[in-house]
UniProtKB/TrEMBL annotation:
GO terms for cellular component: external side of plasma membrane. This is Ig-like domain-containing protein. InterPro entries: Ig-like_dom (IPR007110), Ig-like_dom_sf (IPR036179), Ig-like_fold (IPR013783), Ig_sub (IPR003599), Ig_V-set (IPR013106), T-cell_Activation_Regulation (IPR051713). The lineage of its organism: Eukaryota, Metazoa, Chordata, Craniata, Vertebrata. Keywords: Cell membrane, Disulfide bond, Glycoprotein, Immunoglobulin domain, Membrane, Receptor, Signal, Transmembrane, Transmembrane helix. It is a single-pass type I membrane protein. GO terms for biological process: cell surface receptor signaling pathway; cellular response to lipopolysaccharide; immune response; negative regulation of T cell proliferation; positive regulation of T cell proliferation; T cell costimulation. It is found in: Cell membrane. Its main location: membrane. The keyword Cell cycle does not apply.
Length: 174
C-alpha cells in the first residue's frame, strides 16, 4: 500500500516521537533516596568499565558537593554547606563505586544530586528526600509515675514509644 506524503509525514513524526520518549525514559532515570533530619544516607553512583579517573558530584547541576580526581577524594571546590558532612569510599573506586555518604542531614539537603563521570554523557541522578526528625529503630520505654495525693494512690503508666499500643498498668489500687 503506497503511502501519500501526509501519511508518511505522520508516520515519521510518530516514530520520532516514540524514539524521543524512549530515549528520555532511559536517560532520565532518577534514583530516589529517603532520609531523616540528623541521619545519614548513601547516594549511589556505580559506573561500569572503563573505570573513570574523574568523577564530579553536583547539586542543582552546578554546585560542587564532592570531587574524585585521579582516584583521590577532593573537597577543594566544595560549597560550604557540605563541609565535614560528605565522604566517599576510596577503597571502592577501583570497582567503579563512587557513591557518596552524606551525614547530619538537613531539610535543605533535599535536592537532585548528579554524579557526573568525565567522558560520559549519562550522569547518575539521585533525588534525596529528607523528612522529619531522625529516630533510632530501638525500642524505648517511658515510665511515668502519677501520684494522686487526694485519692492516695499511685499509678504506673508504661508507654512504648515505638508504635506499640500504650499499656496502662494500675497495680496500686486499694
Amino acid at each position: 500500500i503506497p503511502l501519500g506524503e501526509t501519511e508518511l509525514c505522520l508516520f515519521l513524526c510518530r516514530t520520532l516521537l516514540w524514539i524521543f520518549v524512549i530515549i528520555q525514559s532511559v536517560t532520565c532515570q532518577v534514583t530516589v533516596i529517603p532520609g531523616f533530619v540528623g541521619g545519614q544516607v548513601v547516594l549511589p553512583c556505580v559506573y561500569k568499565d572503563p573505570v573513570p579517573q574523574k568523577v564530579f558530584w553536583r547539586v542543582d547541576d552546578v554546585n560542587p558537593v564532592f570531587d574524585i580526581i585521579d582516584w583521590k577524594p577532593s573537597t577543594a571546590s566544595q560549597i560550604s554547606k557540605y563541609k565535614d558532612r560528605v565522604s566517599s569510599f576510596p577503597s571502592e573506586y577501583s570497582k567503579g563505586n563512587f557513591s557518596l555518604l552524606l551525614k547530619d542531614l538537613r531539610l535543605d539537603d533535599a535536592n537532585l544530586y548528579e554524579c557526573k563521570i568525565l567522558d560520559s554523557n549519562q550522569p547518575v541522578v539521585v533525588q534525596l528526600r529528607v523528612s522529619g526528625q531522625f529516630k533510632e529503630q530501638v525500642q524505648k520505654v517511658l515510665i511515668q509515675f502519677s501520684c494522686f495525693i487526694a485519692v492516695d494512690r499511685c499509678k504506673l503508666h508504661k508507654t512504648h514509644l515505638n508504635r506499640a499500643p500504650k499499656l496502662f498498668i494500675d497495680k496500686l489500687q486499694n
